[in-house]
Design goal:
This protein is of the alpha+beta class. It is 36% helix and 21% strand. Strands 1-2-4-3 form a 4-stranded antiparallel sheet, with helices on one face. Belongs to the TRAPP small subunits family. BET3 subfamily.
Length: 138
């Protein structure tokens, strides 16, 4: 539920981000991740995230938030809602925004402060870059 709502938000939010940030086109996955961690998170959440590359291929990263403003006013989850991933909204937002700039990615929560972890960690694995399709004339 939160993932789908986040995805819809990300699809619309990317236009606002590109218009307000005046960023240039990212040329690599690491530039894209840095832009999310340093610029987008600061603009929309008021925090920055640290980045850790977790694959030799350079297509898997972790965004680590020491402070997650989405959980500031959330108390411990009740036992009957223990499986709820409240912050999955962020994963959906990131995935939706990346899709709109033609970057397919798998975005998941690896650690969640609401579940007792020390930090919030979001894993991002880029699946492929969209290919520019050129039509040949005969």
């Amino acid at each position: 539920c939160f993932l789908l709502r986040g995805h819809s938000i990300g699809i619309r939010l990317i236009d606002d981000f590109l218009a307000r940030s005046a960023v240039k086109k990212c040329r690599s996955y690491s530039e894209t991740i840095d832009m999310i961690a340093q610029v987008a998170f600061k603009m929309y959440l008021g925090v920055t995230a640290s980045v850790r590359c977790s694959s030799p291929a350079g297509n898997e990263f972790s965004l680590i938030l020491d402070k997650n403003p989405l959980v500031d006013f959330v108390e411990e989850l009740p036992a009957e809602r223990a499986s709820l991933c409240y912050c999955n909204l962020l994963c959906g937002v990131i995935r939706g925004a990346l899709e709109m700039v033609h970057l397919a990615a798998e975005v998941t929560f690896l650690q969640d402060r609401l579940k007792g972890d020390a930090v919030t960690e979001i894993g991002i694995r880029f699946l492929r870059k969209a290919e520019d399709r050129k039509h040949k004339r005969n």
